[in-house]
């Protein structure tokens, strides 16, 4: 039975590594090869971090976790290098996810500010901030490691191998900086985004006949600051379409936030418990399990942050069509069928904010119309309008 469990565990680790390699490579190539998709710079950076983790970190994790490699011995320098890659890539991946959530928030709630402020310089500054913070946290973890020509088994090469009371301080700082604060940001941001989508779906529900008609608002900035003119009116009941659309939006949010918590909460909870509890040392089967649950995030992220986006899926379908020489009509039908079933949160919000006059353009927008919609926009409840410079 133990041999069977060992083989199954090894196959699962290899499968996760191969999935992370292929999925992150595909999403990166699609974004880099398509000029219109290069605005997803943080998604591309997340795929790059996860791809580096799949190349360097996950194979070393297989060696450290499987009993087939019990005879592998690491020197102190090699163990330090593994810890550097482990902590640095984990920090960079989680910080990138939190920045992506903030970017989506500004894209929806502050669209004009996003168009003006989101420049290449700001994106590069965000990437530099991610790596500087990750390297600083990693250097803090390597403080106090013993010097010399010592060696240890690959299975024992963890952050707890180096003795010292500062490891407890490091694990607490690492958990707060790379999990607690990003989790608070993600919950706050996606909560605000969902409220905007909820009010947008309610806006297009028929208003009861007894309710007074709202006053016509001018296009001045002062009048646009008023979020909802009918705030004091009773909320209209959701029709089946609006109810399903709202459920689709909240399901997308639950999947994104739930995937993040399921992958990283066991990892940080285990390390916090191991460092705080007196007489408890990390390592063993428990650390291997929570580590690979966290590593699974490297294989899942390209699906949740890359392939979930309709634009990336459509471009991937075009590239596949060009490779297989398939007719254009088949790919367009496939794209439309996918869009009707697997609509991501941002496209749901865009559809929910379409008015009757622009219904036709919202169903089949051209690239030019998409650009005009992005610049002009439709009034979305909850948005904070800014005056464009």
From TrEMBL:
**Location of the protein in the cell:** Cell membrane
Query: TM segments?
Result: 6-31, 40-63, 83-102, 122-145, 169-190, 249-269, 289-308
Sorted alphabetically, the Gene Ontology cellular component annotations on this record are: endosome; plasma membrane; receptor complex
**InterPro entries, per the entry:** GPCR_Rhodpsn, GPCR_Rhodpsn_7TM
Membrane-topology descriptor:
Multi-pass membrane protein
Q: Which family does it belong to?
A: Belongs to the G-protein coupled receptor 1 family.
Name of protein: GPRX protein
